[in-house]
Amino acid sequence: MKRNRNGYLIVLLLSAAVLVVVRESNPARADRERVTLVRTPDGGIQPQVAVDRKGALHLIYFKGDPAAGDIFYVRRDPGKRSFSRPLRVNSVPGSAVAIGSVRGPQIAVGQLAVGKPGRVHIVWLGSTKAQPRGPGGATPMLYTRLNDAGTSFEPERNVMQFAVGLDGGGSVAADRAGNIDVVWHGNPAQNGEANRRVWIARSSDEGKTFSRETPAYREPTGACGCCGMKAFADAEGRLYILYRAATELVHRDMYLLVSKDGISGFRGTDVAPWNLNACPMSTASIGESARGVLAAWETAGQVYYDEVNPSTFKISSAVPAPGEGTNRKHPAVAGNARGETVLAWTEGTGWQKGGSVAWQVFDKAGHPLGRQAHADGVPVWGLVAAFANQDGGFTVVY
Asked: Does the predicted TM-score (pTM) go above 0.70?
């Protein structure tokens, strides 16, 4: 009996050792369990996501001809595993663009007061089929919002009154006070990238009406013509705009503009220098975590993220994706309540070329948790999106 008992103890010890070996030999397992990877619904591309105050997930995607396709919207409520029936966003068929991965639609959800649902707001650069047109028949900066009943989207409107010259895409932000900001970069004089600037049209009535656009920043940074940008409003109503400059045509630095209320002027910070006499066709990402606002961008084939200091509005020390970056693009960033961050991006994508998705989770100090993970299957003109789950994990959509 004593021998059997000792034998049983030995078996237990050996079993425990096996478990340890399994965990150490597969360190990516915990990271994969921390991140859920899902495909864009309905075979769509270029997913964009927003999570509202109540935890509902709002997702848009593109389908159809990349030069003249459509935008669709789905919703997933907390506790549900499936998305709602897709709603077409654009009322004019074929009025959206996906070419280049930088001109597609973007989404924001108004985080209104307790008891009021967040309204969905969507913007996109119009295709040649889009209506209404911009001034003089120019490419329009289109905006729509979900109707009061939440059953369909209102007919799109062009919010551009004079700041024409769209090439790269615009963006949209929505705050808790009902302010909606549509931003884009253009050049009414059509005299080069170095003279482009960021423009902003604001609505103070949840998108019912918009003011005439004004320059967001007075400094002559220029704007990279066919690069995307990102706008975001945080819980305190501060407005953030992340875009690529084109100073003297060779300084393709990332710039972060921040305003404490969206109307009293922006402070600008050169986030990441990059000397390049060409357009890299890049996109950017901004998200919010329990620790503050997160920003992500691409520089010279590598992707980075960092937190924005809420007092100084500056980024101190950028965190790169682990390993050597040569063709990493289109980053997406999200943070959870524990202060952890997920950074996702594409690899190997290019003009009319798909690639793979990769992601890495970081702790609150910016140190990698587990190994970097990859998956094939990013389609042509594809992007990735990321958000934090209610259980503290993350989801990456591609």
From this structure: yes
